[in-house]
## 1
Amino acid sequence: MSVHRRFIRQPLAEFFGTAVFVFFGTGGDCQVVLSTNKGVASSPKGDFLSVGFGWAIGLAMGAWISGGISGGHLNPAVTLAMAIWRGFSWKKVPGYIFSQVLGGIVGAGLVYGNYKQAIEIFEGGLKTRASAGLFATYALDYMSAATCFFTEFLGTAILVFTVMVLTDKKNNGKPPPGLLPLALFLVLLGLGIAFGMQTSFAFNPARDFGPRLLLTFAGYGKQLYNYRSQYWLWCPIMGPILGAQVAAAFYSLLLSGDKAEEDERQALEQEAAVVNVKSAALSAEQRV
């Protein structure tokens, strides 16, 4: 059992982390939107800021669950960026991405099962984009295809650029490992507030494609994939992947610390340690 556990532990951490991420996020979407129907609740339960908090809390909780085991990627765009720019093992990439998408399916499935009756009341027994948008992402009607792509590209680029900063071992300003999820919470909350309106801020292929597959199993049909032709592929999947690559490239090539800087930092730390030891020894001699 221990041999098999060693191989599945990291993908399982990505699965559970992503499932929790999507669980909180889609759960927040459902509560805010479904409660606007008088047949579901007496008054609305939240607003767009509540949606942002739901996704941000979900990301933080997912990162805390998986961070110490798998690194807490929770996002295929992040996994690919880490493989190309940070030396993450390519052997692990397929398992990570599969686990992230599967986690998205399960997290959305739990929420869908919990709110199924409310969704039926809200939709009047139909299955349309009104409730599909609680799980998968759709753009506002005025948005052009290029603007939709750019929004997802830009939002993911900012997210991954921040991840690169926060996880750079040569960055003296990075947070302690236990506080990284809190930083991710602030980043995603800020992105939701600044960029969330137009495309429902996927910024993560697994966050969109996993719930979209769940809706396929629930019987929503071709409408999930024929909306604006290939929107589901280019905006919530290719946009985040390409945005992540550009952000990782910019940080790695222009801002990431080099070996000389790292050697200088270590030398300064060693020098400070020697000074501290000498000061402690001198104080001991004076006391004697």
## 2
Amino acid sequence: MTGGPFCSGMVFFEVGPMKFVLAPYNGSLPQLAYNPYSWSKTTSIILLDSPVGTGFSYARDVEGYHDIGDFSFSMHVLIFLNKWFTDHPHYQSNPFFVGGSSYAGKMSPIIAQHISQEIELGKQPKINLKGYVVGNPVTGSDYDDNFRVPYAHGVGIISDQLYEAAIRNCKGSYIRPTDKMCARVLNTFQNLVSEIDVSQILGVNCIRGMLTHRFLSEEYIQLSDPSPEQPTLDCFSYRYYLCNIWANDDSTREALGVKRRRP
């Protein structure tokens, strides 16, 4: 699962077997290539669009889009896994890990805990759970945000002098300054961080408004703009731009067997 919430688990950006060919867009369907670093070389991966309404996923009942919170999200994934392993029993003996990045990192431990509880209760299908994997997981906004200053120092975004000033004046609390000196230090920190792409600190600071989360247009949900502002080729977000075009193309939907969009 990936983050957002409501970011699609599309295979093109992280661990999946495919990636986009990064070339100037010429009006044709963006081309795909194999990812030489795909986890699928050593594992079987289920890339799950969740919660419902993400990517090509949908609910037959409009109410299905409304009851979406962290807990219900986790329970929906648990229901999916039980049905999937029931339909694919030859995978039940495989070592199984729940994985989530960014916001989905909050749900991975919850899902793993519920699978573990079902194993203890003897419920079927029995999933061979070995653990969970989280990448850059969201835990809580205050907890996560408070570590941005130490992280920025650790990767060389801010100087030793600024970091020492933050420690001295803010006393380990970098979210809500309690005095003017701490506020001044944090203001300098924010100005420096604004010059980089916080998600890709070694890349170019580019447009981040590319929404590729919801591809399937029902009358109940609003499809993201199919023609977002085009970033430059050296931006990481250029991949999102290509994905938006690719995923919303009728030939892609037909090849994947995606439900036809309603007018």
## 3
Amino acid sequence: MRTRPFAVRLAVLLLPSLIVLLSVGVTAWIAITVQERSVRSATAERVQEVASTFAELSQVREALRRVDAAEGAAAGLGGTAALDAARARATAELQPLATVVEGAAGVDFLVITDAAGVRVTHPTPGERGQRVSTDPGEVLAGEEFLGTETGTLGPTLRAKVPVRDGGRVIGTLSVGILESQIASDYDEALAQLLPWAAGALLFGTLSSSVLAAAIERRLRRLDEAAREHEQLRRTATALREQSHEFSTRLHVIRGLVAHGDTREALGYIDGVAPVLTGGGDAELPAQPLLRATVEALRAELGALGARLEAEIEVDDEVDEETLLVLANLCRNAGEAGATRVRCTLRQHGERLRGAVEDDGPGVDPRAAERIFTRGFSSKPDPAGTGRGVGLDLAGSLTHLTPPTICGGSRGAAALVKQKTSELGGARFSFEMGVAG
């Protein structure tokens, strides 16, 4: 079972956050762009509305009509005194009104010119009576203008409309707002928008991170489950193969024994699994299966470099489950590195009480609570067929007592009622009923 590469796991964690960052970033950029256009559009509508409304005032038309008449008279007589007086009078009448409108409408200037392009009103007194700095030709020709131009106050977004007397243009009216003021309004609107965008970004990032972490934990659990499943599959395959091989060998041995070929049967067994007999079990004549099990354990532990000491006092026949428990515990002691293993089994009425102890390294205190868990083993598994089955099986068949951890330089494990093993290593005890 292959686990997911680190890059894939990292992508699972980071991709949702990156998507949120991208989504919120694009949304914020669109909102900022829309806000900028909205501010500029609202400003353009305001200056155009002020200009159009002010140009329709009868007071403005009347003042410019007098200036226009004075311009005509001055052109015919060749004098300008009457024209200057008419412009001065128009300024006196219209400038106060223009100043009030500038403040009320929030515009930076409201400039009125006569038909010659000379300013009648202007926020700066020195500019009144002067010709405008931008070309008024199109507006005097009857066209309206809306756009950005640079005048005496700087770059401004302005609206220019003609002032008409019937069908004749007698002046112009220009209303504008400084570009710096528009930028200030935009910055103010942006300052109100950014906290919401930042909050959405933070909330989305945190939420996506939590969700990604939950997904990663779920995927990790699935990986672990898949690995466990694969381990169980390999173990089951190995057990099936071993069972088939063992069954075949049993049939061969049975055939030899059934035909009285005892010597050939023993030779076949020695060839399959050489037995290092230790003797000393003739005291169990009524327990052939138990005696054979002890002999087999002696041989197996001898191959591991350990010596088995058996103390067995039973009257009734020992069943296969008890033998299985004994075999697993003794085998675990030998595989753990013990050189001396003591196995005791005594009958007390209808109960069998057994124990297996050794002089090995004992049980690691950190693993004491997990040693009866299926799949857990302190020994390596180079073949990959699976370990951690023996103690789980033994515990399920008996009332096997988990060892409690006590002191000692070897980390010895002891029973609840016995603090240390006499041999210095681990000690497991169990109790089972006599076979009925």
## 4
Amino acid sequence: MEENVKLAARMEELGFGQAELARRVNAEIQRLTGALGKMTDSDVRRLLKGRTRWPQAKQRLCLEKVLGASAVDLGFVPRRKPSPASPEDDLVKRRTFTRAATGTILAASPLITAGNRIGMSDVTRFGKAFNDLIEADNRAGGDSGTERKALGCAAELMALQQNSSSSQRVRSQIYFLAAAFTSTAMWAAVDARRADDAQRHLEKAVTLAGLSGDSKIQHRIWGHASMLAVQRKRYTDAIAAVEAAKSLSVSRRDPLFGSLAYARAAGIYSEAREPEVALRNLGAAERAFERVDFAEQRPSWMGFFDRAELEGLSALVRLDLGDFDVAESHLHRTLSLLRPDMLRNRAYYTAKLSFSQLGQGDVELATATMTSVPSVSPAAANSGRVRKLMDSFGQELGRVASGSSLHREWLDRNRKVFS
């Protein structure tokens, strides 16, 4: 007795579990015969194990319909000697013929294809496209091109979802990916400091994430929402978003997600001038990080959050609290630990390093540090958030060293680089 590997592969491709396949077949039998089918997950196991090599007629026809392939292509083996047709077989054939003639059902045949179905291969294909966008964002930061590509992929996914059939597993993955693409578009708009566009993407991403039922993508979206709210100086909304991320099941279950939620919360509370709460969250982030098992499988977008990023987020909190020397120490550790592909973050944290040095009164070193930012990555230096930091540095430098040669040189160099 050989296991039916073709049936198993087709179920895997379409994302069907045993119980869901039985339920779909039973519903199809009801449409065909008027009576709900009686297939169970135990029957599906018998099919997979090869114990049932040629299902009875109505189950066979409905398996073909649900799985979008002929019985032979599904690994079933016809009986060598035809047996006399049972009354039930005759009934199935008559009803199949009658309904096909009236256009209410199309009998399965070897010509059936999966053209009207979404399967795991589609999920894999879009997953790769999403990973490519994440890599591009890590290199250069958010731009309109990234935003357009992300929104285009999300729209294509939802069109497939509406015009095709899929298993519950695949359907959830499609919503998950659509939410991931939309949140990437949102983050590109946040990074470019286009708050109104980001807000529109956020509203759609929240809906898609809810439909996916996945707390990991909800965690990502609440994190981005908190940063958008900070840009808009809406600290109550920002705090609500980070607290929502902290309360998600994935934050309690996986210490890496928990650490990121606490670190972001620390940043929001420090911006909101609540230092004690900020430091308490920062301590919780550090403790959670120490428990992380990095061998565990996680979504690609979480790849950015490592020790380097935790050091960087800690530095941002210390900068907000005016602890410039502590912030500088964190930032040096960040820059020493950042992966080579994280060019946008390297440009961002280099710019932040200059503020920690300026806060300690080392004007010459701070100016040299900020001047080096475009050489890290010209594209990243032109991204909205980094460009804003460079503009802010010029203003702060003018405040502490107005009229100095350093200030004049900075303004002149800055105009040439970004003219």
